[in-house]
Structure formats: C-alpha cells, structure tokens
Amino acid sequence: MVTLIIIGVIVVAVLFLVVGAYNRLVGLDQRADQAFADIDVQLKQRQDLIPNLVETVKGYASHERGTLEAVIQARNQATQAASVNDKVQAENVLTASLGRLFALAEAYPDLKANTNFQQLQAELSDIENKLAAARRFFNNAVQEFNAVRRQFPTILFAGLVGYGSDKAFFDVGEESRAAMNEAPPQVKF
C-alpha cells in the first residue's frame, strides 16, 4: 500500500512538472508570436512609406531608375513574405536597397533639401528605431523560448507536443550587412 502511494505521488509530481513545462512553453510561444506581430506592424508602416519616398526621389533623380526599381522590387517582396524566415530575408534586402537609395540622395542637394523628403526620411528613421526595439523584444522572447524548450524535462516531450524545433531569430544576416557596406552608387553628370 505504501508503495502504491509513493508511486502515485511520483506520477502526480511528474505529471505536474510536465503540465507546468508545457504551459510555460505555450506562454513563451505566444509571447514570441505577439512580439513578431509587433515587428510586423512596424514593417508594414515602413513598407507603406517606401512608395512615397521613391516618388519623391524619382522627381529629382529619375535617371537613377535601377536603384528606384530595386527599392520597389524589394518592397514588393517584403510585402509578400509570409514566414518569419522569408520576412527576415526580404526585409534584409529592403534595408540594403534603402541604404543605396539614401546614398544616392546624398548626390542630389536639392533632394536632400526637399521638405517632403526630409519628412519621409524622419518618419522612416522613427520607424527604424521602433523596429529595432521590436526586434530586440522578439529576439529576447525567441531566446527565452528556445532555452526553455531545450531544458530538462521540457526537451523530453517538446517534440511530441509540436515544439520540436527552435524559433528563428530576426537577424540582419551577413548578406544584408555586406550589402549595407557596399560602395555608394556613382553619379556622373
């Protein structure tokens, strides 16, 4: 009889640990999803701002068609990306193309002095700051989820309940870092 009570207590304790670990995983998963939704809002605002920015630049640098088209194409890919990894890659390409657009704008003093361009640039800068904060929050939530998923006893059953793999971080990536460090476009008159 005492043996059955001890076994029962052990089973209840293990069950309590498993349920607690599962509930923590679900909570951390929801936190990461919510954090990514915050990033998504900022990305949408940035994507909505880009056509206005391109139109403003087009008025001053219409013969820089390649750069302007690259920005629009990168924006379109970013708006169509569905998964976290696809969004990360698309946004990295968009960030690099925006960097080239602003480098191009340096060659046009009238454009740099344009009030509309300055306002759009300030709005984009504000969005970028909010986006950086949202990325940090998301990456922290992902790090916490991944750490808990790998801990004992969670690792024993995480795969069985749909949490078998780590979540991906929202990272700028090597390709985007390299693209941002490219030489600015050459403008000749």
Describe it for me?
- The protein has 189 residues and is mainly alpha-helical.
- The chain is 79% helix and 0% strand.
- The protein has helices spanning 2-60, 65-80, 84-105, 109-113, 115-150, 154-157, 173-180.
- Helix 1 (2-60) packs antiparallel against helix 2, helix 1 (2-60) runs antiparallel to helix 5 and helix 2 runs antiparallel to helix 3 (84-105).
- The longest helix has 59 residues, at 2-60.
- The N and C termini lie far apart (95 Å).
Helix percentage range = over 70%
**How many strand elements?**
0
Order of H and E elements: HHHHHHH
Secondary-structure-derived class:
mainly alpha
Question: What is the arithmetic mean of pLDDT?
Answer: 86
Number of helices: 7
State which percent range the strand residues make up.
under 5%
User: Could you give a short account of the major beta sheet?
Assistant: none
Q: What is the rounded distance between the termini?
A: 95 Å
Quaternary organisation of the protein chains: single chain
Q: If you compute it from the alpha carbons, what radius of gyration comes out, rounded to the nearest whole angstrom? A: 24 Å
Overall geometry comes to rod-shaped
Q: pLDDT below 50 for ≥5 consecutive residues: which ranges?
A: 182-189
List keywords for this structure.
mainly alpha; disordered C terminus; 0% strand; 189 residues; rod-shaped
Task: Summarize the helices and strands and which ones pair or pack.
Elements: H1 2-60, H2 65-80, H3 84-105, H4 109-113, H5 115-150, H6 154-157, H7 173-180
Helix pairs in contact: 1-2, 1-3, 1-5, 2-3, 3-7
